[in-house]
Amino acid sequence: MTKKEFIGYLDHAIDDYASEKVLSGTFEVDTAQYLAEKEYNELLPEGNITPNHHLLNILTDEGKKVGEFWYHFDPENQKKIAYVYDISIFPEHQDQGYGSCAMLLFEEEAKKLGAKRLDLHVFGHNKVAWHLYHNMGYIVTDINMSKNLEKAE
Ligand SMILES: CC(C)(COP(=O)(O)OP(=O)(O)OC[C@H]1O[C@@H](n2cnc3c(N)ncnc32)[C@H](O)[C@@H]1OP(=O)(O)O)[C@@H](O)C(=O)NCCC(=O)NCCS
Fold this sequence. Notes:
Layout (H helix, E strand, L loop, with lengths): L2 H21 L5 H15 L9 E7 L5 E9 L7 E9 L8 H16 L3 E4 L6 H9 L18
Parallel strand pairs: 3-4
Antiparallel strand pairs: 1-2, 2-3
Helix pairs in contact: 1-2
C-alpha cells in the first residue's frame, strides 16, 4: 500500500475492528472507536512503513484491487511466527475464492521470508473466516467463551 492507500485502508479498517470488538462483547460502544484507533496507532507507529509490518493490496491477475492484507513478520524473532493482523475482501468480491488465494500467497511469501508458523485471531462470530482458516489447515489454539445473561433465557 502507498501512504494514500494506507490512509484509505485505516478509514474503514478501524471502524470494522471497533464494530467487531463491540459485537464480540470486548469493547463498549462509546469507547470502541477510541480503543480501536489506539491499538492501530500502537501497532503501526510509522503507518504503512512500520518495520516488519506488511500492508498489501490484494489484486486480481488483471490488477483490479479486491481487498487488503496486513501481516507481521520479524525475521529476528526466534519462533519465526508470521501473524495475520487483517485480511479483507471488499463485499462485492467476497465468496469468489479471493480470500483463500490471498491466504495461500501469504503462506508462500511468509515461507520465503523464513517463517516456520502462521498465527492469526478470528472472532467466534465470524463463520466465513473461521471456515476459510479451518479449510486451509489452521487449528484452534485457545478459545475464550462467554454467555450473555441479558439475552440468555
Ligand atoms: C473472511 C473473508 C476474508 C473471506 O474472503 P472470501 O474471498 O470471501 O473467501 P473465499 O471465497 O476464498 O472462501 C469463502 C469460504 O467461506 C464459505 N462461506 C461463505 N459463507 C459462509 C457462511 N455464512 N458460513 C460458513 N462458510 C461460509 C464459502 O463457501 C467458502 O468456502 P469453500 O471454499 O469451502 O466453498 C471475507 O469474507 C471478508 O473480507 N470478510 C470481512 C472481513 C473479515 O471478516 N476478515 C477476517 C478477519 S479474521
